[in-house]
Amino acid sequence: MASTRLLCLFSAKAAGTTKTRLAGAAARRVCCRRSVCSSPSRRQSCMSAWVIDQYDTDGGGLRFTDEATVPTVRSPTEVLIQVHAASLNPLDISMRGGYGAKLLKLRREPLSAMHSDSEFPLILGRDVSGVVVDCGSEVTHFAPGDEVWAAVPPWKQGSLAEFVTLTEYEVSHKPELVSHTEAASIPYVASTALSALVSAAGLCRDSSSNKRVLVTGGSGGVGTFSIQLLKAWGAHVTVTCSHNAEGLVRGLGADKVVDYTEGDVAEQLGMMEKFDVILDNVGGDTEQWAVGLLKPWSGAKYVTLVTPFLLNTDSMGLMDGTINAGVTLCAKATQNIISNGVFYRWGFYAPDGPALDEVRKLVDAGKILPVVEAQFPFTQVPQAFQKLEQGHARGKTVIRVAEEETSQAEDLVLDVGTETAESEQGAQGTAQHN
Ligand SMILES: NC(=O)c1ccc[n+]([C@@H]2O[C@H](COP(=O)([O-])OP(=O)(O)OC[C@H]3O[C@@H](n4cnc5c(N)ncnc54)[C@H](OP(=O)(O)O)[C@@H]3O)[C@@H](O)[C@H]2O)c1
Fold first, then answer.
1. What's the pLDDT band for 58 if we cut at 50, 70, 90?
2. How many structural domains compose the chain?
3. Are residues 287 and 230 in the same domain?
4. What is the CB < 6 Å shell around ligand 1?
5. Domain around 202
6. DSSP character for 152?
7. For the chain, is the Cβ count within 10 Å smaller at the N or the C terminus?
8. How far is 33 from 322, CA to CA, in rounded Å?
9. Are 263 and 199 in contact (CB under 8 A)?
10. Domain Enoyl reductase (ER) spans what residues (predicted)?
């Protein structure tokens, strides 16, 4: 009970602290290039990491090593980041079992189709909050010492390690008023939600105030972020979730909440005014009843994040899988525009540092709060995976890679009072719930 903590930040605090990238970059450029690490031991180029050596669908396979190779800046636009905190997403569990392996391997190494180079040892973890320790010669927005956050693309080595490299475009300055642990709960779900809501659904800050949006699966990582973003943009937000998450999603700003475990969810939503946008975080048969809830012939859009694209490339191969996914999407889009007068789309995560810059402003203004359900130390990554595997997420599960200071906003705590008993059990008593 009452284990999800939200940080309540005052926008006034943020006002004097935000600075533009350009102003900061000019001042920092002179010191941009410097050696990765100052301590002699670090120059040995070994680091701690959790790796997998093969795909494993049985839930094992994670191996701790302190002999992983420290990544280096290999292109002029790359930055090397010391990871302070990471977080887990459902994708980490899927990728551990080989989800998306064929396409991601090709993306990592375009020539891999021609030979059989291994992608292992592979490091999972898609979110990072940390500190820049090295920059390529053409990096203009960041300098060593900068606190940054980012969503690590799934084709890159992940953040369950002491260091990670990313391109400058993928990175953003971290919000100033939250800790690394809190910041790490946001980038991947934020990048996904923004890609889905902006690129696929056509929403933006200035066009959302008169829009009715339905978010299914509102209690998870993407859902809890999307509710807050949409409310910051002025939309009317309806959420589906289970009964014990109602307090959480209402605390994040949801206008209407429908308990999908109580009665027919489609029937309950069907009694409401129709929607302009549906963001579907649940998938399955949701689309069969959800598209009928959209306003017909008025540009309304259904966007699902649960797509068969990578499953298709895994099972059918790259060419056939891509063609099959394309045909499926076209058929559904055509059928929905003809018979329902609505747009049907698939949403995907996309790396986008500038988008995270906008999210940072909302976090520092107190309009978006990190929703950290559980924290684990770096020694307990397998336990964190076990917690995630049990489902019923209420926000995010975060890994403290480097033990850190407490939040600067520690005294500004809003307890939403959600029940997360299942999650506490799942963490086997190791999570430090807030
Ligand atoms: N396409 C992409 O690039 C992309 C990117 C990110 C995420 N995704 C996918 O998007 C989905 C959501 O991601 P996430 O990170 O938010 O997952 P998550 O953190 O695991 O959250 C899922 C939430 O949905 C709730 N839920 C389950 N069944 C439900 C139902 N029938 N109706 C309403 N709520 C339900 C769960 O709680 P209860 O079970 O307790 O109800 C949980 O809170 C996942 O399938 C993920 O794989 C796709």
1. confident
2. 2
3. yes
4. 89-91, 189, 192, 216-217, 219-223, 240-242, 260, 281-283, 305-307, 347-349, 391-393
5. 189-346
6. P
7. N
8. 41
9. no
10. 59-399
